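re: ur question from earlier - yeah i can do the single chain one, its not a big deal. heres the input i used so u can compare w yours
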Amino acid sequence: MKNKFKYKYSTAFKIILFAFLFAWLAIFAINVMKVANLFIFYSRDTIAEVTCIVASLFAFAVWFCLFNLKYVVTDKIALKFGFIDIIKGKFCINKTIKIVQATNQDKLYINLVVDDQPHIALINVHPDDFEPFVNCVRSKNPKVLFDQAEIEEKEE
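and the output i got, formated as tokens:
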């Protein structure tokens, strides 16, 4: 059974993510050409160019982790950024009460207890993964309820 679910980003965020990728790839390529004295580029300050290359590699690693952000369901629901759990294991399956699919919003909410306090959290997965996600959570804890409902957004 599938236990990894890709995080769903908005289209605007994806555009920003790819704009940063292309910018950092350009910075990387230009600085590599400067260090190697290729084409019309030559190195004025090798330390600065090497620093830009290293920073570009680090930025690409961060971009790759963001692009591959995913929920992993085991005995808890983890949001994995690389090998780091962003929510720090607070979403335990045995503390999950209910999962609600908002039919009017195409969103999935989870109702659970964190540190003895009830919480409702948005699970940002693609709508095609709603059913597999719910089935995965319910296979770990059959007591978890599932409901589909229209949810009104709160205006402040």
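Residues 102 and 151 are 6 Å apart (CA to CA). not sure if urs matches, ping me
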